[in-house]
Amino acid sequence: MAEKPWAGRFRQNINQLVEDYSASIAFDKRLYRQDIEGSIAHAGMLASTGLLSEEESAAIISGLKKIREDIENGSFEFDPALEDVHMNIEVELTRRIGEAGKKLHTARSRNDQVATDLRMYVRDEIRSIKALLMDFLQTITEKAEAHVDILVPGMTHLQHAQPISFAHHLLAYFEMFYRDYQRFSDTFARVNVSPLGSAALAGTPHPVDRFMTASALGFDAPSRNSIDAVSDRDFVLEVVFAAALVMMHLSRLAEEIILWNSQEFAFIELPDAYCTGSSIMPQKKNPDVAELVRGKVGSVYGNLVSLLTMMKGLPLAYNRDMQEDKVPLFTTIDTLKASLEVMRGLMDGLSIKTDVLEKLLQAGFITATDIADYLVEKGLPFRDAHQITGNLVVHLEHQGKQLDQTSLDEFKKFSDMFAQDIFTYISPQNSVDRRTSYGGTARNNVRESLREASRILGSLKDEK
Fold it and tell me: What is the pLDDT of residues 278-311, one digit of tens each?
């Protein structure tokens, strides 16, 4: 059994059950790259302050780089008895280079070490998530650009409400996912603070240069309080929260895709490559990707609640409970990235059935609000116009007619204000193009929104 780094205090070996229960190497080994990068910066700083000789620092750095190569080529074997990724790497380093390896942990603790690794990992993953969000925003924009002139029923309460440009509907999701992108950018600033050098909780008496290691690792600054540095997991909670919001937005989009694809709506066609069939019903083409995205939101929400619950009663500073932060974080990030990628492919391959939409737009009195607006423009108070239009709709329902089947004489039965120009108002195209208020669905507005979306995407690319 490998000797524990804390074995000097104990006279009994740890119970195997406890060892199995407390080991984290099965999941925290994915932090190896950040752990080695942090140790290289720490070794360089120790040499610059005289806590290591230049020869010792060089041997440590060379040894760490070779261990990283071995991990990446699959020849390194992690030992569960060494508990975590940090001790696996340190013990192997000492085995390879001798006494100098034992000096690497001078002026640090696993408490600030893991906090540093985790912040670096989250920072790297935020960059990846932002790149995926930017790609998704690009796909939404391209799909919207191709469908400015395609009208769909806009809905409230899942009932046809008013006609809108399909591009306008898609650009609503652009706004959601752009806010998600901004949230991750905001989170990054709070993540990018270095705990390294805070040691266990109280700092260190050794003459370390925390600003040097922070700079070497790309952090904006070292943390201001050593206790907060090792016991804070706000940044983990924040990134999981931001991920939960993205997943919620993906789920809303997935739900709409599922509805639009159903035989009751049937105005989109999904790409075969992103659907599956039935083992018994040969006619089926199931929207499994959208359904799985909708389902996976639950695990991300659960991870957020798990982390909040874990942290809610912890006294300062570090407690072993905090080891349980990694699986929820890792699985959330993996789920989010995979969901963004697969939904992008689904959206890219989605096509519109315009013939179905044309029929839908003539049903359900979808331009009834335009009739009320027409009467308002003729000088009638809106509440009266609303009442008259409602009475007209009830009449037409009983007659089994739609608005485009209504004669001027029938309109006039409900108000003398109706004239021949009412027929321009009940056209779905005209209804859309009259919605010229800022942010409305008029096609000229939508084209300007697309230009703004392109400008935003250009600024995001420049940000990289």
Answer: 889 988 899 999 999 999 999 999 999 999 999 9
Token pair recorded at residue 406 = 């209504």
Together in a domain, 341 and 365: no
141-to-129, 133, 144, 305, 339 alpha-carbon distances in Å: 18, 12, 5, 33, 18
Which position among 22, 262, 278, 454 bears the catalytic label?
278
Residue 395 three-state SS:
helix
Q: Residues 317-354: pLDDT tens digits?
A: 999 999 999 999 999 999 999 999 999 999 999 999 99
Question: In angstroms, what CA-CA distances link 24 with 37, 65, 192, 380, 407?
Answer: 20, 23, 24, 72, 76
Does position 409 have pLDDT exceeding 90, yes or no? Answer: yes
pTM, full prediction: 0.93
41 and 63 Cβ atoms separated by less than 8 Å: no
Q: Distances in Å between the alpha carbon of 10 and those of 138, 161, 299, 320, 411?
A: 58, 72, 40, 18, 93
Residue 237 contacts residue 304 (beta carbons within 8 Å) = yes
Nearest residue to 404 via CA among 442, 374, 359, 344: 359
Percentage of residues in the chain with pLDDT exceeding 70?
96
CB-based contact 250:301 (threshold 8 Å):
no
**pLDDT at residue 22 in the model:** 65
Q: Which of 353, 383, 412 is the last residue of a domain?
A: 353
Tell me whether residue 367 is in a domain.
Answer: yes
**Per-residue pLDDT for 21 more than 70?**
no
Same domain, 242 and 391: no
In the residue annotation, 278 being an active-site residue is answered as yes
Q: Which domain holds residue 416?
A: 360-443
Tell me which of 157, 279, 437, 459 is the catalytic residue. Answer: 157
Q: Both 101 and 129 in a single domain?
A: no
β-pair partners for 194: 222
What string of H, E and C letters represents the secondary structure of 95-159? HHHCHHHHCCCCCCCHHHHHHHHHHHHHHHHHHHHHHHHHHHHHHHHHHHHCCCCCEEEEEECCE
105 in catalytic set: no
| Token couple for 140 | 């939404």
Residue-wise pLDDT for 418-452, tens only, equals 999 999 999 999 999 999 999 999 999 999 999 99
Please state, as a whole number, how many other Cβ atoms lie within 10 Å of the Cβ of residue 272: 10
